[in-house]
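pasting for the record
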Amino acid sequence: MAIFHGAFDGRVPDGLPIGDDWLGVENTEQISFPYDGSAVGTAPVGNVELAVRAISEAVRVRGQVARLPSHVRRSALQQTHRMLAEHRVEFEELLILETAKPRIDCRVEIDRTLLTVQTAAEEVARLHGETVPLDLLPSGDGLVGFWTRRPIGVVIGIAGFNYPLLLASHKLAPALAAGCPVIIKPAPQTPLATLWLVRLVREALVAAGGPAAAVQLITGGADVGVALTTDRRIGAVSFTGSAAVGHRIARDAAPTKVLLELGSNAALVVAADADLDAAVDAVIRGGYYASGQACISVQRVIVVEAVRDAFLDRLSARMADVVVGDPRDPATRVSTLINSAGTDRVLAWIGQAAENGAKVVTGGGLTSDGVIEPTVLLDVPARLDAWNEEIFGPVVAVRSVPDLEAAFAAVNESRYGLHVSVFTESLGAAFGAIEEIEAGGVVINEVPGFRSDVMPYGGVKDSGSGREGPRFAIEELTVTRMAVIRPSAKGRS
């Protein structure tokens, strides 16, 4: 069936992929296109009982998955990559309808998902240990030592709604590469593309000689998430979402290992010597992609006072370039947010900023089809949500500071620290930013939203802990096992 309104059904079997089969569920819900409310498809709704069953099935095959030969794990991921590439156009259409994210951003999501799966397959061949010189002390004379990396166990992967396919792949592919069974929980708003991806992975894994139960998916609400993350039989939780939920998971899951990719309010710093046209272009590209629903989209722009007016003039002149409308149109850059609650919240934050003295330079309202206009706010008080929290909408807030030192201090005042970018022509300023800014990534002369899926990605402070990127996620999802061997006990006194 073609993937258009109401026609997702048939892309996956009925029910949820739990154990070696697809289990029927009592409840389903309609997934609607956020832009116009029309039907996209029907999704199964899981429950706590099915979540516990999925964990039991994962535990059942844990040893088998850990012992899978490298060629089986690599082959399964390679075949997944081939099948995903074969259906990339259909996945693109489905992502547009599930998320209302502009077509260009859904196309990028497919590209990045393909790279993530491919890189995870390649990393299987690099999963190894090292020897250790145990005889650095006399007590180690005659001993041979080496360590290997072993799978951490069952992995729970919880993904957000904004990049459902990509975020799921960053949990699923490294877990499988590491030899860990994985259970994916997609966001309730966007389960369809992830269900289809899991079907492809399970088929590829069985064809390569592995068990289907190594990769499962469960939907449902917060009670399902709690059941998954607090079960003592699991080895790790990998969560992408809000800081509040992530912190609660970390507390409730202890002592289980928890990897958190949380929110941000990414800053872009404009130094006095910056290429202003390039900096403005970065705000246009980096502030409004995915309709602003990206944790590393530009939210705070901190401009050195000497270039404030020139920067604002250039930015105002470019705002008309941000095309608003139907996400299916290739020209669209900003469309509907995921739901009306998100839209209402963003508009409330804009209104709060304006009431407290901020200037609405452009935008600030809704279009006739319910899309928030690309918005620039000026001089938002630092205590307000539009400045210090993650707005997750097409809104950029600009403030000026006396100098670069003050700009770095303003960046670091945030409780978040994921990605920050700095525009400067000075090598000294660039290295100063890398040294002084408290963030998981510092990007010079490019958008803070730049992310290559092969690099270590993650934050500090309330932006999370642990790192994604296949190589780094595999390290997170494995533990070192030290081997100490005395070749012969004879003669040992």
